Amino acid sequence: MLLEIKDLTREFVRRGVPFAAVDHVNLSMDDGEFIAIVGRSGNGKSTLLNMVSGLLRPTSGTVTVEGKTVAELDDRALSRLRNRTIGFVTQSQTLLPNLTVIDNVILPAVLFPDDPVTHDQDHAAEEATAPDVPKQTISGQDPSADQSDPDMPDVIAPATSPSPSDEQTDALTMRAHALLADLQVDDLAHSYPRELSGGEMRRVSIARALMNQPKLLIADEPTGDLDAESTLIVMRLLRSLVDRGTSVLMVTHDADALPYADRILTLDAGRLAEKTA
Ligand SMILES: Nc1ncnc2c1ncn2[C@@H]1O[C@H](COP(=O)(O)OP(=O)(O)OP(=O)(O)O)[C@@H](O)[C@H]1O
């Protein structure tokens, strides 16, 4: 089983009174499943996704990814899980401001260069033709940009291993361009995040989350600020990934995104249930 959520609860305290934002949730996901979760604002959707990805600790219950209990992992194992097994498109913008678009997308792949991603999965992006571009490295620092990273994304972990070889960097650059092309933002590869619209940033974030070919993509409102055409592009890409074995757990308010999912669940006051028509 790829993901197993058992009796998961997260309490917060409001005005001195504890309440369960996520309340005894159970869910299992296998490879190649596409689950959408809908629910009114404040009903616990982001809290649930944050626990699945290990960003938030449960009050009780467990999240198990590929047999490993997320809350029991040490920092390095958790970073590796979030970098390699899980891709996370967060609700808020987490691109690094001082890196170009292409370097933001490549970044997750150079964090653990001793553990290269195997490119044996038949992913959509690999079928795309990469444009003829100069070799990129994670060096495109914009001297005028703020060097602090208040929005450091969860994929960031200290890179303690040697840098990838030129050949690996070329392959990673080609893959990043192919993903950006799939999402129709490759013309922005050398722009900085501050030069992008909200919808463009969202698509770049999706490319970054897919860079390491995650087995489980967690997406919090992936089409939140996209127009109808971009929504179609993103949802078709997610569907094609699912059809090739990736699993997607998506939270959405977007009715146009729902037909692409295999199952639709509701989260109501922290309680998860199958959506009835
Ligand atoms: N750190 C926190 N401390 C206290 N309460 C919190 C905290 N984080 C979330 N909550 C509360 O928990 C509930 C669930 O929040 P959550 O962000 O999971 O909702 P959501 O369903 O994702 O909402 P939205 O659709 O608006 O993003 C809300 O009532 C929120 O105010």
UniProtKB/TrEMBL annotation:
Keywords assigned: ATP-binding, Nucleotide-binding, Transport
Domain called ABC transporter: residue spans: 3-277
CDD domains: ABC_MJ0796_LolCDE_FtsE
One function term, GO molecular function aspect: ATP binding
InterPro entries: AAA+_ATPase, ABC_transporter-like_ATP-bd, ABC_transporter-like_CS, ABC_transpr_LolD-like, MacB-like_ATP-bd, P-loop_NTPase
Lineage top rank: taxon: Bacteria
PANTHER family: ABC TRANSPORTER ATP-BINDING PROTEIN, IMPORT ATP-BINDING PROTEIN
Protein name: ABC transporter ATP-binding protein
Organism: Bifidobacterium tissieri
